[in-house]
């Protein structure tokens, strides 16, 4: 059984905060009416900003546990579409929702990654951190960072990521 570390490096706490902010932005986006667009853009930009911060904090982590390394790699691969170079050059052919609709789980953040996939990635990464480090006081429960949005099988998410990744260059 893995023993949780009582003292995590500062970058782990910052990463956890960024992941939590990603989950909050995804939750705030879900169900929002498409109009007025400035509300959607504000929340979407918040999610993108926190993804970019999380990616930077992951690079600072000294990971020695294979399961944590695997989760970091999955998060980095799943959020590669948020790389600034990719965002500047990417074009999406999938239409965004009509003005009379609201944001659903399939809404594409930055017209690249479905909302539910981003929430799954952030939640799984946060769960992995909570498995290795005591982040929030003396909680001894099993990690449950994503109970609201984390309900799919991880293999399903990996398949969706692979299918989405193969269309990046197309």
Give a short summary of the structure.
This protein is an all-alpha fold and 170 residues long.
Question: What key attributes describe this structure?
Answer:
mainly alpha, 6 helices, two-stranded antiparallel sheet
How many strands, what sense, and barrel or not for the largest sheet?
2 strands, antiparallel
Return the average pLDDT rounded to an integer. 77
Q: In which range does the helix fraction lie?
A: 40-55%
Strand content: under 5%
Largest sheet: spatial strand order: 1-2
The total domain count is 1
Number of strands: 2
Order of helices and strands: HHHHEEHH
The rounded Rg comes to 16 Å
Poorly predicted segments: 140-154
Number of helices: 6
Q: Can you tell me the overall shape? A: elongated
Structural classification: mainly alpha
Distance between the termini: 44 Å
Structure description:
Helix 1 runs antiparallel to helix 2 (37-60), helix 1 (10-29) packs antiparallel against helix 5 (115-132) and helix 3 (66-78) packs antiparallel against helix 5 (115-132). The longest helix is centred in the first third of the chain and has 24 residues, at 37-60. The chain is mostly helical and 170 residues long. It has one domain (10-165). Strand 1 and strand 2 (113-114) form a beta hairpin. It has 6 helices and 2 strands; from the N terminus they run ααααββαα. A two-stranded antiparallel ribbon has the order 1-2. It starts with 9 loop residues before the first helix and ends in a 5-residue tail after the last helix. The radius of gyration is 16 Å and the shape is elongated.
